[in-house]
Amino acid sequence: MPLYEHVLIARQDLSNTQAEGLIEHFSTVLADNGGKVVEHEYWGVRTLAYKINKNRKGHYAFLRTDAPSGAVLEMERLARLHDDVMRVMTIRVDEHQEGPSVQMQKREERGERGDRPRGDRPDRGDRDRGDRGDRGGDRGERRERN
């Protein structure tokens, strides 16, 4: 069966147990339609990049599934109809990665900016801008147009 990864964003005014209950609800929907949830993660409440339905934050959940396309379509349909779910995104993958998702890993484990102290910029080397040439004078001066 095809492998999928899903990210659900639920309303911010839900409790943690209600948000985790949504994971269980959609897991049973997949199981009823012939699929299974390989792994799921609750990422917690996070700030959204932009407001969605007047919400600035949302509960994020991540599911790795092994399900037929019909089960995934039914789960997405029910998620879009559910009042507590603001967004759902599904991606088909060739294989599931082992261990926790990138969101759950610590920054040092990912290798992101872990070796450099904060505020220390790397040397720019020979990438200096150099002379910009004559740019047409001062901003206060006006050119005459012919």
Largest sheet report? 4 strands, antiparallel
Going by CATH, the architecture of the domain at 3-90 would be 2-Layer Sandwich
Query: Regions with pLDDT < 50 over 5+ consecutive residues?
Result: none
**Helicity level:** 10-25%
What would you call the shape? elongated
Number of strands: 4
Please explain how this structure is put together:
It is a single chain. The chain has 146 residues and is an alpha+beta fold. It has a domain at 3-90: Ribosomal protein S6/Translation elongation factor EF1B (Alpha-Beta Plaits, 2-Layer Sandwich). The protein is 23% helix and 32% strand. It has helices at 16-32, 69-81, 107-110, and strands spanning 3-11, 36-52, 55-66, 85-93. The chain has a 4-stranded antiparallel beta sheet with strand order 2-3-1-4, covered by helices on one side. Strand 2 and strand 3 form a beta hairpin. Helix 1 (16-32) packs antiparallel against helix 2 (69-81). The longest helix is centred in the N-terminal third of the chain and has 17 residues, at 16-32. The chain is elongated and about 75 Å long. The mean pLDDT is 82.
What's the topology here?
Blueprint: E1 3-11, H1 16-32, E2 36-52, E3 55-66, H2 69-81, E4 85-93, H3 107-110
Antiparallel strand pairs: 1-3, 1-4, 2-3
Helix pairs in contact: 1-2
